[in-house]
Amino acid sequence: MSSFMSISHSWGARDIAFTFGFNPPSPAATCNQRTGVWKSPEAAVAQNFHLPMRSLEVKNRTSVDDIKGLRLITAIKTPYLPDGRFDLEAYDALMNIQIMNGAQGVIVGGTTGEGHLMSWDEHIMLIGHTVNCFGSSIKVIGNTGSNSTREAIHASEQGFAVGMHAALHINPYYGKTSLQGMISHFETVLSMGPTIIYNVPSRTGQDIPPTVISKISGNSNMAGVKECVGNDRIREYVDGGMAIWSGNDDECHEARWAYGAVGVISVTSNLVPGLMYELMFKGKNTLLNSKVMPLVKWLFGEPNPIGLNTALAQLGVIRPVFRLPYVPLPVAKRIEFVRIVEAIGREHFVGDGDVEVLDDDEFVLVGRY
């Protein structure tokens, strides 16, 4: 036996306690001989003592460069059971379809995945589930952003602890903040691991201007920006050497081939992942892009993910269950979707069954779950 092993083997609880500065426990539970009453041992409590985590111990550690090269990232839908809990069987099937059709990454619990309707426990569980089941085949990017820096820190710590490859962070919404406040918020969360910044003023009510992105762009964990303002903004960032993803499915083809975007973080790829793969990988194809546009326009006629939820239900890929406040599109729009599927070709859409027009009473709306 080596001397190291001999020394470590000979250490007892009191030696370790002395080394790290906390009170040792009682050696064992005791029993008062006179009364026969059992007394539990005292717990050893180490105050503010943490061993540093080595990088090799961090599950699925990935580099920022691995994230920067992802061309097709799907903002994955979260399906539900009739009581409003996650339908993990349907979720796993949808994930497998994405992987088989070339998606390189997924956003878990984003706007499309309805992270804002989840508790943080649900949120982190779903990230961990995705990592454990699919993390070796696809990059898992957890939406751990919040309008509260404290919540964003805590969620990101947990997300990286369960193995997500990168975080998606939005700027503080509703309450908003100053430009310096944005910088401080992002610098805080960027310290935790590879991160994509998400700019979508239509939802947050506040643009992340280039001056803010410029301030944080030098951070070693800054993977890039999901940009929804438009392709001129994308070009500005690309010219500065940044990795940018289009956040607008209707503009992503031009963003990729004319403005230099790495690719897209897509809602539409939930439905037609193979076609979105072609648009991102196979060169400029205006004919295919035009073919997909009626679907994209239909999807975003109401706030996302209302259209997507309705579409996946009619394709039989998920149960027709909505967590309120989302409700299905009206029947006229449901009929229109069937016609769009027929025009593009059912074989390009996820799922194996026929596309159907569901009746109003087939949808389940859940307020408590």
TrEMBL record:
PANTHER family assigned: 4-HYDROXY-TETRAHYDRODIPICOLINATE SYNTHASE 1, CHLOROPLASTIC (PTHR12128:SF15), DIHYDRODIPICOLINATE SYNTHASE (PTHR12128)
Any one GO molecular function term: 4-hydroxy-tetrahydrodipicolinate synthase activity
Role summary: Catalyzes the condensation of (S)-aspartate-beta-semialdehyde [(S)-ASA] and pyruvate to 4-hydroxy-tetrahydrodipicolinate (HTPA).
Name of the protein in question: 4-hydroxy-tetrahydrodipicolinate synthase
UniProt key word Coiled coil: no
Pathway terms, separated by semicolons: Amino-acid biosynthesis; L-lysine biosynthesis via DAP pathway; (S)-tetrahydrodipicolinate from L-aspartate: step 3/4
Keyword entries, A-Z: Amino-acid biosynthesis, Diaminopimelate biosynthesis, Lyase, Lysine biosynthesis, Schiff base
EC number of this enzyme: 4.3.3.7
Domain of life: Eukaryota
Catalytic activity annotation: L-aspartate 4-semialdehyde + pyruvate = (2S,4S)-4-hydroxy-2,3,4,5-tetrahydrodipicolinate + H2O + H(+)
Family listed: Belongs to the DapA family.
GO biological process: diaminopimelate biosynthetic process; lysine biosynthetic process via diaminopimelate
